[in-house]
Amino acid sequence: MSKVTMQDIADALGTSRVTVWKTFNHRPGVSDEMKEKIIAKAHELGYDKLPSEPHFTEVPKAKTVSLVVSRPDSSIFWTNIIHRMAQELSLSNINLMYTYVPTSCTSEYELPDVLKDDTVQGIIVLNVYDKHLLTLINELEIPKVFLDTVPEIELKTLTGDLLLIEGKYTEQQIVDHLFEKGCKRISFIGDINYAQTNTDRYLGFLESLKKHNFPLIEDLCFTDSIGIGHYGDCIFNFLDSLDPDVDAIVCVSDYVAHYVEMYLEENPHHFHNDILLTGFDCSKEYTNVINRVTTVNVKNNLLGKRLAMQIEFRMNYPDAPPETSYIRYEIIYSDMLLPSGRMN
Q1: What is the pLDDT averaged over residues 97-101?
Q2: Which residues of 78-109 are buried (b: 16+ CB within 10 A; e: fewer)?
Q3: How far is residue 89's CA from residue 60's CA, in Å, rounded to a whole number?
Q4: What's the pLDDT tens digit per position in 34-48?
Q5: First and final C-alpha spacing in the chain
């Protein structure tokens, strides 16, 4: 007599072999009632490969990951990352829970209890750029993944994984291109203390200056801290005082670049030359710079998937050494001169 197979059990119950396989391997997607029927039929037919565990109806408990985030009214750039992250985690029976923290805090601030009472099994830190907050999160003994950090925190002190959008060498290539196009007085705008990625982009700017034997002219650079809600005023004030012979402006992000473009439109005769403008991130919400500035095509959808994969790995292997990963994206060049709209 031939051995009983999973297909024989499935045929006897009018179900599929996949359903039987899921039951024997403790996979989701099979009702408790069907599991019990499959196990009973397996015993009845004399199936000899039953797993040793006597209880097969228990479904693995869903895990919960907390997304620790500041500014719930964040831009589309961030929400696209979050949506893809939630989709990917759900495929592994992992729930994504929001935990909001302030944009900044005093030394007396304490993290929400939900991050400290075993409610969550992992943490993803997104759009949090306060040193004290990041330090508190870093001290939690729970698997965690950071997307970016602040330059005040040494990378070697992080107790979780860190994902960074590569900026130093990418920005260097962008500025190299400006020199190749004949630009000689290049400005840089961006709060380099806000995020590690901003710092990296500024370092890339400096590397390109050095490569082309151009000295750093500090008056052409605005790298000071900028308070949330004050970007427009700060950038406009800087541009009012900027050398009118500037022929290119490197912005740390498309968000900054869109303010510069607004200024150029409102003050078309302030500079003696039309300007080559660059940004970073390829944000579709800043319509005034789409296809008009050189930028970097950060695929935030896939970035969300990458974060989900990383926190799953960290939860499965909590004792593995912390990782720092750089993700490099494609540069999209534009040689449009602003505000005229001519091509260089």
Answers
A1: 94
A2: bebbbebbbebbeeeebebeebebeeebeeee
A3: 15
A4: 888 888 888 888 887
A5: 82
Q: pTM above the 0.85 mark?
A: no
For residue 337, the SS3 value is strand
Higher pLDDT, 180 or 29: 180
CA atoms within 13 A on the CB side of 204: 23
Q: Which fold has domain 1-60?
A: 434 Repressor (Amino-terminal Domain) (1.10.260)
> Which regions of 45-185 does DSSP assign to beta strands (E)?
63-69, 94-100, 122-126, 144-147, 161-165
Identical topology for domains 1-60 and 168-297+331-338: no
In the prediction, which pLDDT does 56 show? 45
Flag the least confident range among 28-37, 42-51, 116-125, 147-156: 42-51
The domain 168-297+331-338 is placed in CATH, from the list 3.40.50.2300, 3.10.20.740, 2.120.10.10, 2.40.10.10, at 3.40.50.2300
How far is Cα 333 from Cα 344, in angstroms, rounded to an integer? 12
Work out the average pLDDT over 275-289. 95
Classify domain 63-165+300-327 at the CATH class level. alpha beta
318 Cβ neighbours under 8 A, 6+ residues apart: 143
Residue-range domain boundaries for the chain: 1-60, 63-165+300-327, 168-297+331-338
pLDDT band at 292 (very low <50, low <70, confident <90, very high): very high
Write down the residue that tokens 């296809």 correspond to.
291
